[in-house]
Structures are given as structure tokens and as C-alpha cells.
Amino acid sequence: MNMFKSALCGASIIALTAIGAQAATLTVTDISGAWSNVVGGQQVNINNGATSTVRWGTPTNAQSGYDFTPEGTPLDAAQDVDFTLGTFTHHNFPITAGTGISSASLDVTFKFYLGSDSSTIYTRTSQFVFNHWETGNSDNPCADGGTEGSGVNINGCADQVTAVTNPNSTDSFEIVDGNITRKYVFAVNGFDIGDEFWTVENQTNQATIKARFTYEENIQPAPIPLPAAAWMLMAGMGGLAMASRRRNRKS
């Protein structure tokens, strides 16, 4: 009996270890971005390809614009560790006054599976909305309150990008696998832009979108069947008890 208990405990430890190993990974299989809802601007061009871009303005040499470049996939992520889904880039080039945009939206869609179950793919989309201030290059003072020709305004007054909608949200997923229910929490932390940033004229500025996941296990073990020998032993003990009661009645 002690040997049976020892073997059972060992099997349980192995099973729990296997469950933990399976649940401790997330694999992102695809990431894409799509620009839309551009407000204002002239000569606006949107290209939602591998790197999604939006360009605007009557250029001096090149148009101003935004890019979204997704991380390469498949992308494996460990629990409770931030990982990057993609990079937002602002290109600030001189354009004719009055031809800049005032806002644009970016939908970031990503697909992933949990643990080793690659047959079940989850899809999530997060929307980011940016307000844009295409400032006059020779304003005095500049839009940020600084002086043209110094600091962030070294090449002319810097342009401002503000994250109006920069979601920091979570989704929960419950996966039932046999007699085990696992709860996963997936969080998109948003672009690390803060409330805003200023981009130097004739330069670019970048921010990355971060996410992370964690999980909880709710283990509901199924009843463990007794070996046939144990059932036979219990039946035998029951028979002995009945025989004992009969003898007691006769006496």
C-alpha cells in the first residue's frame, strides 16, 4: 500500500509539472497594423502592407508620416514578461503650411495560441488614436514653449504627437483541458509614448507597443479509480462482515 501511495504521488507531481510547462508560454502567430480615420491633411496616402504607413502634406523634400512595423512572428512570450508587438514611428519632414493632418487611428491586430494548443487561435485588435500638431517651423516661441534653434527645436519647431487613445486593457481566457481549467490574462500595455512626444524637424521618433500575459490554474482532478485488486479486497471484507453478523445472530 505504501508503494501504491508513493507511485500515485509521483505521478501527480509529474502531471502538475507537465501542466505548468504547457501553460507557461504564449505564441504570437501574426501581427498587422491598419491606419484609418485620418483627419485633415493634403495628399494623404495610406498603405496597410507589411509595414503600415500613412503619409501627408505637400513636401519640401519628403512627406511627413506615421509607420507601424510589427515584430516578426512566430513570437514566443514567457509569462509575466513584457514583450514587443511592434514599433510606431513618426517621420517629421518640412511640408507646406496647412497640409498636415490633425489625427489618425491605428488598429493593431494580433493572433496567438496558448501553451502547446496551436489548433486554437485567438485574435485580438487594439485601437490607438493619435492627435497630431504640425507646428510652424519658425514660430517664436515654438509650440512646446521653447526657442526655435535649440533643444528639440534645433532644426525648426518640433511637431507634437499625442496618444488620445492608448489602451491599457486586459482580456481573460478560460481554457478547459480534460479535468483542468486554466485562466489566462492577456494585457496590452500600449505604446510607451506617455501622454505625448515631440519630434525634431527632419528626424524620426519611435515608440514600441508592449504586452504581457499571465495565468492561473484551477485544477479539478478527476476521481482516481481504485485498482481491481482493491475492489476485490473490499468485496471480500464485506463478505466477512456479513458472515460475522450471521454467526452473531445464531449465537
UniProtKB/TrEMBL annotation:
Keywords: Membrane, Signal, Transmembrane, Transmembrane helix. The keyword Transmembrane helix applies. It comes from the Bacteria. The keyword Transmembrane helix applies. InterPro entries: Choice_anch_K, VPLPA-CTERM. Residues 1-23 form the signal peptide. The chain crosses the membrane at residues 224-243. NCBIfam families: choice_anch_K, PEP_CTERM_THxN, VPLPA-CTERM. This is THxN family PEP-CTERM protein. The lineage of its organism: Bacteria, Pseudomonadati, Pseudomonadota, Alphaproteobacteria, Rhodobacterales.
